[in-house]
Amino acid sequence: MAQATLSGDGTAVPAGPMISADGVPLKVSLARAERRKRLTAFFLVVPLLLFILVTFIVPIGDMAFNSVRNPEVVTYLPRTAEAIRTWEDMDELPGEPVYAALVADLQAGSGTPAIGRVGARLNYEQSGMRSAMQRAGRAANRLEPPFKEALIEHDPTWGQVQTWRVIDRESSPYTLSYFISALDLTYGPDGRIVQVAPEQRIYVELFIRTFWLSIIITSLTLLLGFPIAFLMAHQPARIANLLMILVLLPFWTSLLVRTSSWIVMLQQQGVLNDLMVLTGVLSDASRIQMVYNQTGTIVAMTHILLPFMVLPLYSVMKTIPPSYMRAARSLGANQWTAFWRVYVPQTTAGIGAGGVLVFIISIGYYITPALVGGQTGQMISNFIAFHMQRSLNWGLAAALGTILLFAVILLYYLYNRIIGVDRLKLG
Question: Any idea what the CATH number is for the domain that residue 301 is in?
Answer without folding.
Answer: 1.10.3720.10
